[in-house]
Specification:
It is a single chain. By secondary structure, the chain is α/β, with parallel strands linked by helices. The protein folds into two domains: 20-143 and 288-364, Rossmann fold, CATH 3.40.50; 145-272, Rossmann fold. 44% of the residues lie in helices and 17% in strands. The chain has helices at residues 2-24, 40-59, 79-91, 104-117, 145-158, 172-184, 206-213, 229-239, 255-261, 288-302, 308-327, 332-340; strands spanning 27-33, 68-74, 97-100, 121-123, 138-140, 163-169, 191-198, 220-224, 246-248, 269-272, 345-346, 351-352, 368-373, 376-379. Strands 2-1-3-4-5 form a five-stranded parallel β-sheet, with helices on both faces. Strands 7-6-8-9 form a four-stranded parallel β-sheet, with helices on both faces. A three-stranded antiparallel β-sheet has the order 10-13-14. A hairpin with a 4-residue loop joins strand 11 and strand 12 (351-352). Helix 2 (40-59) packs across helix 11 (308-327), helix 5 packs across helix 6 and helix 11 (308-327) packs across helix 12 (332-340).
Length: 381
C-alpha cells in the first residue's frame, strides 16, 4: 500500500513537472523582414520595433506566463529569399505565428506556404491582394493600396483636380497600387491621362516625368511606390520645375522621406497613419495614447523617432499576442480564429475590427491626409 502511494505521488510529481516544462516553453514568433536592400527603411524599423517590444514584454513576465522568442531573417527585399526563410521558420524553427513580410512581394511569395501549414500570419505589407480574396490564415496591419488611392482621389476631388498622371513602381506594391488606382479612379471622377512606371532601383526618373510634364491636360501627379524610388521622383520633380500638385502614397509615410527629399518635398501630400503626427493629434483622439507611447519608447531606445512602418510591426505583434491571450495558448487554429474575431483593437495605424470577410479591419478614417510644409508634416483640414 505504501509503495503504491509513493508511485502515485511520484507519477503526479512527474506529470506536474512535465506540465510545467510545457507551460514554460517560449511563444515562438517568426519574422521575415527586408532589413537591408531597397525596402530597408521599412524593414529596419520593423525589426527594431519587434525586438524592442519583445524585450519589454519578456521583462514584464511574458504572455500567459511564457517568454516570447523572436526568430527573424532578412530577405534583403528578395521575394525568393522570403519564401525560403518562411519555409525554414515553419519547418525547422517551428514558430507558433508569423509577424512580418515587409513587402507585398515577400508576403505573397510566402502565402502558399503559410496556408498549407495552417499557421497564422500577420503581414506588414500594403497591397489589397494580400487579404483579397480572404485567405484563411493571413491577416495584415497596413492600410491597403486601394484605401490610399481612395484617400488621395478624395482629396483631389475636393481641390477640383480630375485629370491626373499616375507614376507607379514596378514592385509588387507599386503594381498593385497601380491596379487599384485604375480601378477606383472613376468613382471619384478622376481620369488618368498619363500612366507611367519606374523600377525600384532606378536612380533617375526624369524621362518618365518629362513625358508627364509634356502631356496635355495633366492637373496633378500621383506616385505609387515605396523605399527610395519615390524620393528620387520627388527630387527629379523639382529639378524639372514641375509645378503641378504632387501626391505620394502611404509607402513613404516616414520622416525618412523628408530627410531624403529635403526642400523638394515641400507641398507634397499623402495619406498616412496617425503614427507620423502624434503631437498633432487631438487629446480626445483614441489613438493618441498609443502612438505617443510608441513614439516615446522607440525614441528612448534608438535615439530617433518612430515611423509608420515600425508602427505596422507594433500593431502586428500586439494583435498576434492579443489573439494568443484570447485563445489561451498557441494552438494555431484557435489563434487564427481569435485574430479573425478582433474587435475595436486600437493600434498605431487605426482601430482594427476584423471579420470572416475582412482580414485587415481598417477603414478610410484610419488615414490622415498630410502635407509637407516648411519641412514638416501638417494635417490637411
Amino acid at each position: 500500500m505504501y509503495q503504491n502511494v509513493k508511485k502515485i505521488v511520484l507519477t503526479a510529481a512527474l506529470a506536474f513537472s512535465a506540465l510545467g516544462a510545457i507551460a514554460a516553453e517560449p511563444i515562438k514568433i517568426g519574422s521575415v523582414l527586408s532589413v537591408t536592400g531597397p525596402a530597408a527603411f521599412l524593414g529596419d524599423p520593423e525589426l527594431k520595433t519587434l525586438q524592442l517590444y519583445v524585450a519589454d514584454i519578456n521583462a514584464k513576465g511574458g504572455v500567459l506566463g511564457r517568454q516570447i522568442e523572436l526568430v527573424h531573417y532578412d530577405d534583403g527585399g528578395d521575394a525568393g529569399k522570403a519564401n525560403g526563410f518562411t519555409k525554414r521558420l515553419i519547418e525547422d524553427d517551428k514558430v507558433d505565428i508569423l509577424v512580418g513580410g515587409t513587402t507585398t512581394g515577400a508576403t505573397m511569395s510566402s502565402a502558399p506556404l503559410v496556408e498549407k501549414a495552417g499557421i497564422p500570419f500577420v503581414s506588414l505589407a500594403g497591397a489589397a491582394v494580400i487579404v483579397e480574396p480572404v485567405k484563411k490564415f493571413i491577416f495584415k496591419t497596413p492600410h491597403s493600396d486601394r484605401m490610399a488611392a481612395e484617400k488621395v482621389f478624395e482629396d483631389m476631388k475636393k481641390r477640383g483636380l480630375s485629370k491626373i498622371a499616375l507614376l507607379s513602381e514596378t514592385s509588387g506594391f507599386g503594381q498593385s497600387g497601380k491596379k487599384e488606382s485604375e480601378a477606383v479612379a472613376s468613382k471619384y471622377g478622376i481620369t488618368l491621362v498619363a500612366n507611367e512606371t519606374y523600377g525600384p532601383k532606378d536612380t533617375d526618373i526624369s524621362p518618365q516625368l518629362t513625358k508627364i510634364k509634356n502631356t496635355d491636360g495633366v492637373q496633378a501627379v500621383f506616385v505609387f511606390g515605396l523605399g527610395q524610388g519615390p524620393a528620387i521622383v520627388t527630387k527629379n520633380y523639382k529639378q524639372l520645375a514641375i509645378s503641378l500638385p504632387l501626391y505620394q502614397s502611404h509607402g513613404v509615410a516616414s520622416d525618412e522621406f523628408l530627410k531624403l527629399t529635403g526642400t523638394a518635398s515641400e507641398g507634397v501630400r499623402l495619406p498616412s497613419p496617425a503614427q507620423l503626427i502624434p503631437e498633432k493629434l487631438s487629446a480626445k483622439d483614441p489613438q493618441k495614447p498609443i502612438v505617443t507611447a510608441y513614439e516615446n519608447a522607440y525614441k528612448a531606445a534608438y535615439k530617433t523617432g518612430a515611423s509608420t512602418f515600425g508602427g505596422y510591426a507594433h500593431d502586428g505583434l500586439m494583435l498576434a499576442l492579443d489573439a494568443i491571450k484570447r485563445a489561451g495558448g498557441t494552438d494555431k487554429a484557435k489563434v487564427r480564429d481569435a485574430l479573425e474575431a478582433t474587435k475595436g483593437f486600437v493600434g498605431t495605424s487605426g482601430t482594427y475590427t476584423m471579420s470572416a470577410t475582412d482580414h485587415m479591419g481598417l477603414d478610410l478614417s484610419a488615414f490622415r491626409m498630410l502635407e509637407v510644409k516648411n519641412g514638416d508634416w501638417t494635417i490637411v483640414q
